[in-house]
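Schema walkthrough. Field components (list of strings):
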Amino acid sequence: MPEIITQTDRLTLRVPTMDDVDVLAGYWADPETMKYIGHSGEAWTREVVEQRIAQAIERQRISGFCFWVVERRDTGTVIGQGGLVPVANKGPEIELGYRLGRDHWGHGYATEIARASAAYGFQSLGLDRLIAVTYPENIGSRRVLVNAGFDEMGLTDRYYDITCMLYELTKERWATL
Ligand SMILES: CC(C)(COP(=O)(O)OP(=O)(O)OC[C@H]1O[C@@H](n2cnc3c(N)ncnc32)[C@H](O)[C@@H]1OP(=O)(O)O)[C@@H](O)C(=O)NCCC(=O)NCCS
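Field assembly_structure (string):
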């Protein structure tokens, strides 16, 4: 059984396994879903998804966190991924992210994932600050971050090859939510 990281009312966030590649490769092959991911906004091939899942498993082993797999608790359906990663694979800041298969949009899941990942980061990993970045035009993702308590910090081109909107959530601010 894959290791469970945390649970919400409706969702389980757990460590990925290579058995997740099939369903995730289906989700991340959708250009609409990937429009605001990475600097190219291109859909991913199965090979890329395999690499990313292998990398996530290794990152979890080394640092205790990664871009986890998200399942519905009632059905066990894998709906996407979310969690914590060193920004741009380098850090030192830790970035919160989430991404759902298109059939699972519009149910409040991303907000639930963001809140649960942030709580895990502050409570269990002892982090002091999280950041998140979005394409400025990714209105849905920006709403998710605000709903999860993040503050909007303005545009930045510091982390990726594109200009992103930067968000921040400190442990102090999170403790007041
Ligand atoms: C963006 C994404 C994560 C939103 O997930 P979701 O589970 O549908 O989001 P939620 O249901 O928690 O919605 C949160 C808020 O965003 C709004 N929202 C969601 N998608 C939206 C969209 N496409 N346009 C405008 N608003 C949107 C919701 O109405 C809700 O608003 P509210 O706070 O006023 O109620 C999902 O569409 C997705 O995975 N997209 C592709 C990948 C991606 O862009 N990931 C984020 C990269 S930074």
